[in-house]
Specification:
One of its GO terms (molecular function) is beta-glucosidase activity. It is an enzyme of class 3 (hydrolase). This protein has helices spanning 17-20, 28-34, 50-64, 75-78, 87-102, 118-122, 131-146, 161-172, 189-197, 214-234, 256-266, 315-324, 343-362, 405-416, and strands at residues 10-14, 68-72, 106-110, 152-154, 239-241, 243-245, 248-251, 280-284, 287-291, 294-295, 331-336, 367-373, 392-394, 401-403. It has one domain (10-245, 261-284, 314-335, 356-387): TIM Barrel, CATH 3.20.20.80. It is built from 14 helices and 14 strands.
Length: 422
C-alpha cells in the first residue's frame, strides 16, 4: 500500500525555548528550578545551548530532510521587565527565522510555551485581570518586527494542560510538581520560595500551569483572542492558532459518561475560543481508558513509555477523528512523540501514528502537517534530563549532537512525502 501525503504537507519537529535554549534566567520556571526544596530533578542551566547553537541545529535539521521547525519565542527574553523590550533578543529571533528561511525550513512559532517572565508573577501572574492586554502587547511588539517571517504561529501551547493536570493528579492524590488551581491545592513551601525569587508572595504567584478554575480559564481565552486579533492586524499573512494536549479518551462498558465528561473538560470547554482561528494545533501522546469508577490503570503487561504513558501510536488517528467531528478548520499535528531509550520503538511509533494520519486524510479530514516532539533530547521540566523524547541525542558535557535512526527515518518520509514501511 502506498501512503502518499498531499503536496505541501508540512513535515518537521518541535522544541520549546526554555527546554533547549539555556539560561532563561528571567522566567518563572528558572525561579521554580532554583527555589528551596524544588522538586525539579535538574536545573535547566545551559540546557542544550540552542540559543547559541541554533544555526548549526537548523542546518542539521535540513540535512536530515526535515522541512519545518516549530520553536517558541521566550517572553521573558523579549520583555525582561514590564514594558522594556530587548532589541538584542528580537534580533536573535530574527536571525533564527532568517536561518530557517536560508535552509528551506518553514518556521512555526509558539508565542508562549509554559514559561513566563518573573515580573508577571509580581502582578498576579495569569490571574491578573490585565493578562490579556499584557500578552497581546508582547505579541504585537514581536509581530511588528518579525511577523513577515512567521507563516504560522501558536499563541499558546497546550492551553488545556492545567485542567488535565488538576484532574489527573487530584484523582490519584498526588501533588503535581508544576502546580494547579490555587483554591484546590495547598502549595508546598518551595512555591513560596519560587515566589520570593520572582520578587513577590505566594498569594500573587500564579503560573500558566495553575490556569484551571473558571476565572483564570476565562482570562486565558481572552488572552488568546486578543493576541490573535493583534497578530492578524499586525501581520495579516500569518496563520494563527493554539494547541491542545489531547489523549485518546476511551471507555469500557459503564465508563461512557465519565469519558465524555473528561473530553468536555479537556477539549469541549475550550472549543469556543478557537472560533476565528486559522488552524488547530493537535498534540497527542497516549490513550486514557475510563470505567464506571474512573480511569483504568493499564494492564501489567502493557508497554509504557519513560513518562508512564501507554504506548499507543494509534491514539493519534483516533483523536484527529474525534476533533474533526467538532471543528471545521485545518489541523496541524504540532506535537506527537514518545519518551524512550529504544529508538526502534520511536521509529515504530512514528510509522504507525502516520498510518493513522494518512487514513484520516483519505477520509477527507483536513490535516496540513506533522511535527514530531521533539527535535532533541532536552530539559523535560520537572523530570529534568531523564526523559528521551528526541530525534537527536545531545551530549550535555560537549553539546555534541548525534542523530538517531528515527531522525533519519522522519527525514526520509519528509523528502518522499510518503510513509516508508520497513
Amino acid at each position: 500500500m502506498k501512503y502518499e501525503f498531499p503536496p505541501n504537507f508540512i513535515w518537521g519537529s518541535a522544541t520549546a525555548g526554555h527546554q533547549v535554549e539555556g539560561n532563561n534566567v528571567n522566567s518563572d520556571f528558572w525561579a521554580e528550578e532554583h527555589a528551596e526544596g524544588s522538586p525539579y530533578k535538574d536545573k535547566s542551566g545551559d540546557a542544550i545551548d540552542h540559543y547559541r547553537l541554533y544555526k548549526e541545529d537548523i542546518a542539521l535539521m535540513a540535512r536530515l530532510g526535515l522541512k519545518a521547525y516549530r520553536f517558541s519565542i521566550e517572553w521573558s527574553r523579549i520583555e525582561p521587565e514590564k514594558g522594556e523590550y530587548s532589541s538584542s533578543a528580537i534580533e536573535h529571533y530574527r536571525d533564527v527565522l532568517e536561518t530557517c528561511r536560508e535552509y528551506g525550513i518553514t518556521p512555526i512559532v509558539a508565542m508562549h510555551h509554559f514559561s513566563s517572565p518573573r515580573w508577571l508573577m509580581r502582578l498576579g501572574g495569569w490571574a491578573n485581570s490585565e493578562i490579556a492586554n499584557l500578552f497581546a502587547q508582547y505579541c504585537e511588539r514581536v509581530f511588528r518586527d518579525l511577523g513577515h517571517l512567521i507563516p504560522y504561529t501558536l499563541t499558546m501551547n497546550e492551553v488545556n494542560l492545567p485542567v488535565m493536570l488538576r484532574e489527573v493528579f487530584s484523582n490519584i492524590g498526588f501533588i503535581p510538581p508544576v502546580g494547579i488551581e490555587r483554591d484546590a491545592w495547598v502549595a508546598p513551601k518551595w512555591r513560596e520560595s519560587a515566589a520570593r525569587l520572582c520578587g513577590t508572595t505566594a498569594d500573587k504567584y500564579f503560573t500558566f500551569h495553575m490556569i484551571s478554575d473558571d476565572s483564570s480559564i476565562k482570562l486565558l481565552k481572552e488572552a488568546h483572542m486578543k493576541a490573535r486579533d493583534v497578530i492578524k492586524r499586525t501581520s495579516p499573512n500569518t496563520k494563527v492558532g493554539l494547541s491542545m494536549a489531547l489523549s485518546d479518551i476511551q471507555a469500557v462498558p459503564g465508563g461512557e459518561s465519565l469519558a465524555e465528561k473528561k473530553w468536555q473538560s479537556y477539549f469541549g470547554q475550550f472549543q469556543d475560543v478557537i472560533t476565528g482561528d486559522d488552524f488547530f494545533g493537535l498534540q497527542n501522546y497516549t490513550r486514557e481508558t475510563y470505567g464506571p469508577e474512573g480511569q483504568i490503570a493499564p494492564p501489567e503487561d502493557a508497554e509504557l513509555t519513560q513518562m508512564g504513558y501507554v504506548y499507543c501510536p494509534e491514539a493519534l488517528g483516533n483523536v484527529i477523528r474525534k476533533v474533526s467531528q467538532s471543528i471545521k478548520m485545518p489541523i496541524m499535528i504540532t506535537e506527537h512523540g514518545i519518551a524512550t531509550e529504544n529508538d526502534e520503538r520511536r521509529v515504530e511509533f512514528i510509522r504507525r501514528g502516520l498510518e493513522g494520519v494518512h487514513s484520516c486524510l483519505n477520509d477527507g479530514i483536513d490535516i496540513i502537517g506533522y511535527l514530531h516532539w521533539s527535535t532533541f533530547d532536552n530539559f523535560e521540566w520537572n523530570s529534568g534530563y531523564a526523559m528521551q523524547f528526541g530525534l537527536i541525542e545531545v551530549d550535555r558535557v560537549t553539546q555534541e549532537r548525534k542523530s538517531k535512526e528515527s531522525a533519519h527515518y522522519l527525514g526520509r518520509i519528509a523528502q518522499k512525502n510518503s510513509i516508508i514501511t520497513r
